[in-house]
Structures are given as structure tokens and as C-alpha cells.
Amino acid sequence: MSRQSLAKAHQKIQELSWEPQYHEPYMKYGTDYTFRKAAKKDPLKQVLRSYFPMQEEKDHRVFGATDGAIRGNMFRQVQERWLEWQKLFLSIIPLPEVSAARSMPMLFSVVPNPELHNGQAIQMIDEVRHSTIQQNLKRVYMNNYIDPAGFNNSLRNFHSDYCGTIGRQFAEGFITGDAITAASIYLTIVAETAFTNTLFVAMPAEAAANGDYLLPTVFHSVQSDESRHISNGYATLLMALSDEDNRQLLERDLRYAWWNNHRVVDAAIGTFIEYGTKDRRKDRESYAEMWRRWIYDDYYRAYLVPLEKYGLVIPHDLIEESWNQIWNKGYVHEVAQFFATGWLANYWRIDGMTDEDFEWFEYKYPGWYDKYGKWWENYNRLATPNGHNPIVFEDVDYVYPSRCWTCMVPCLVREDMVTHTFEDNSIRTYCHEVCRWTDVEAFQPTYQGRETPNMGRLVGKREWETLYHGWNWADVVSDMGFVRDDGKTMTAQPHLNLDPKKMWTLDHMRRCPPLGSPNVVLNELDEAGRAAFIADYNKQGPAGRPAPTNA
């Protein structure tokens, strides 16, 4: 079909748009944005007549690669360390895709643009397709990998586990609160335009380096759809910019969306790329180098900065602080250490770091060994049961962290942890001042004197530790369902050895101290006790070390 006939077909579709006159529509998902002066254009016209053949061809490639992986014995060659981390990744990623699909109808009633409605409808189909091929990928892994435990129940249980709850709050941000904040700024303008670069481009490259060429095929098929989603977001952004009343909300939402994406996506993808790989070539990029190229240069400098010509204030300080977190404060390394500390509450096996890993980290991140090396040596020493408890209960100079109420990633850069005490005297911990601002100021019915009734709230039992406070660890693991078919051996292990004599069981967990929630403990303290707790916490680290006694 010629480009001219595509344009005509696209125009014809807009003529079919209509608004019902026989009843007053119910605005279930509202927005505080206004579009009174918005130009109504779709910069990337797409119609189903061209869309479906294109997607069909991509699906043929995905399923052909799947068949080739099985016939070519890929699962005999792929690195176990890599595929174990995919148990976490592939349990989480379908939910953001489904949430993204659900978020598109939220925009239909608040963005007065029939052209964009067409693009949003096609994006909704994209997102459903993405979640389908991703879940099918997990099914293929489960059916062919040497250790399917974890793949088989992660989709059902990840919402209540140690790490998966972080992914859940990230995905639910696409479908809660102000429709433009959630489905446009947070999803299409930040998550899809910026962070899918590391998610769907950098990560597949690392998969291939570990012998997994199936994930790159699937995720490059996903990433090839993102240009349309980016176009939807950019068109909506330009519409919002045409009304001066929206500027305050746009600047608020860019700050929130950027920071929450950084906290969650960098935590997860950075860990997969740095700690899930066996590829330790000196010339391969570290996650910091990937981030600088794919996000800082390609998104921040080429996409965000030009928006300043419209008078929009860009969160330069947060982008620089995100880089500071990754490069100077060891954010990704702290996250990987936290995941491994709580291996017993997960559903995959976490391989320890070796001398080759140590050498690579020291080369890419000078000073890494002095901060994290000793802890990983202790992790290896305590990996198999031999009369000791899991590492989280042993004396390895690690203080278990408090959770951030907002992003739900723990407060791992200890110096940045802040708190807020509410009128009912309850206190919450936040990993950074921006997360405190998000909860206490941005997600409120009034923002800087302006009524914002459509904004969401961060409520509920958000911290995983609080859900199980006081429980015996054997009961925690059983309740989550992370037990193998024999009814006693744990799905998670702090090593890759499948010898039953080397694996941890529920009996080992029963002798451990009960699970304690730092949030519950903090709230039980008096004012002086809370102040002492906060002061001590801010002096801890790096790598979770206790505060110096002479500090």
C-alpha cells in the first residue's frame, strides 16, 4: 500500500469517530490536565491494514527462533547464571505490558484527539502481544531448562515476594491516578522512550553473550513497536504543552516519572546485566557505560533537553543524581547484594561471584572490591548448608535495610535515606528525598496550591517485610509457594548446584530467627529512638556495613 493511500485511510478512520449524545459519559479515569488549545495531530500514522501483516511477519520470526533454539540445543549451552535471573525478569515483565495495554483506554476519554485514539488502540494491541510472547518465552524456558522450578509458579506468586513486589508497584503506576500522569508521562514519555533502551536493547545483547539467542529475538520484536508508543507519548506531550495551565503538572510528573523509573528499572536491569552474566570481556560495556550511552545521551540530551525551547523545566538535577547513584554510590551493586542477601525469600538460584567476576568489576568500577568483595566471598562461603544459617542471619557486616515506601526498593544508599512522620505519628522511610516528595507532596489532592483531585495515592501494605513480620521463615517460604516438588527443598538457592545434599530445605529455615520488618520496628520506637535509628542508618554503608562506632 502506498504512503499516500495509507494517509487517506488514516484520515478516513478519523471520520468514523463520534461522541454519544444520548447520555453523559462517566469519567472513571480523569485528569487534571486540560487540552483547550491543543493541535490534534498524530505524527506517526498507522492503520490496521499495514499493521497486521507487519506484526505477523515479526511473530513468524519469534516462533521460528523458538523452534531453532529447541532444535539447536540452545538449552545445553546457555549459562545457568543467566537463565536463573530470567525467572525473576520474566515473572515481572508481562505485568507492565498488560498494565500498559490497560492504560491506553484511560487516554481515550481525556485526550481529545481521534487521530491519537487510533494510535493508542494499536498500542493496546501491541502491549497484549508483548505480554503474550514474553509469557510464551517463559513457558519455553520452563519446558526446556534444566531447572524449571521458579518458572512454573512465578507469575502466580511474584506479587507477594521479596523482589517481585517492586515490579508490581512499577507496573501499577501505569493504571492508577491521573490518566495523563500514569498512561502518558510515566509510561510513554519516560518508561518507553528512555528506559526500554536498556531493557529491550542492552539486555538482549547480554543474553546473546550468555548463549541465549531466544530472548534477543523476542525482545527486539518488542522494541520495534516502541517507536509507535514513543510517538503517542510525544504527540500527547505537545498537546499538553499548548496549554500553559499544564506546565506545572508536566514538570511535577516528569520528576516523579523519571525518578521512579530510575529506581526500579536501573535496579532490575542493572543487576541482570552486571550480576547475571558470565561474559567478563574487558571490552564489553558495563551497565554504567550502557546507561550513559542509551539513556543519558540518546534520551536526556536528544529528547528531553530540546523540550526546553517550549519553556518546560527539565529535571536536570534528577538525571545527574541518577548517574551519580549508578557511578559514585554503587546503586546497582547495592541492589544485587540486597537480592542475594534475601535469596531465601526468592524463587531462583543466585550464583555467587568468582575471581573472574571480581577482576571485571574492579576494572569497570575501580574500588569495587574494597566495598563489596568481602561480602561476596562470605556469600560463597555460606552458600551450602553446613551448620550455619543463611547469610542474612550471619555476622558479615551487613545491616538489613529499610524499604522505601514509594518505589519499594530498599534504602540501600544509606546516606540518602529520609523519613516522614504523619499526623497519626506513623513514620515512613524513603530511599531518597525525591521518593519522600512523591508520596508526601506529588501524590496528594493538592499540589503547590492547585487542586489535583485525580492524582493517585500510595496506600496499602506496601512493604514485603511487613506482610510477614514475626513469621517463622519456613512458614514464609511455604506461604509464598517457593518449595520444590518434594515438599521440603526450597526453590531458591544461593548457588547453582542441584545436588540434594547441597540444597537448603524448610528444615534449615525453621531454626532461623523470625522475620522482622524494619518498618514495624521503627514505628514502635519513641521519638528519641526514631532519631537515633535514623542517625545510625545514615552513617551506614557502603555495602550495608554498620555505622562506625566512633562516628
UniProtKB/TrEMBL annotation:
InterPro entries xrefs: Ferritin-like_SF, Phenol_Hydrox, RNR-like
| Keyword annotations | Monooxygenase, Oxidoreductase
Q: What is its EC class?
A: oxidoreductase
Q: Which GO terms describe its molecular function?
A: monooxygenase activity
E.C. numbers: 1.14.13.227
Where on the tree of life does the source sit, at the highest rank? Answer: Bacteria
Cite the SUPFAM superfamilies for this sequence. Ferritin-like
Gene3D superfamilies the UniProt entry points to: Ribonucleotide Reductase, subunit A (1.10.620.20)
Pfam families recorded:
Phenol_Hydrox
Identify this protein by name. propane 2-monooxygenase
Query: What organism is listed for this UniProt entry?
Result: Pseudonocardia sediminis
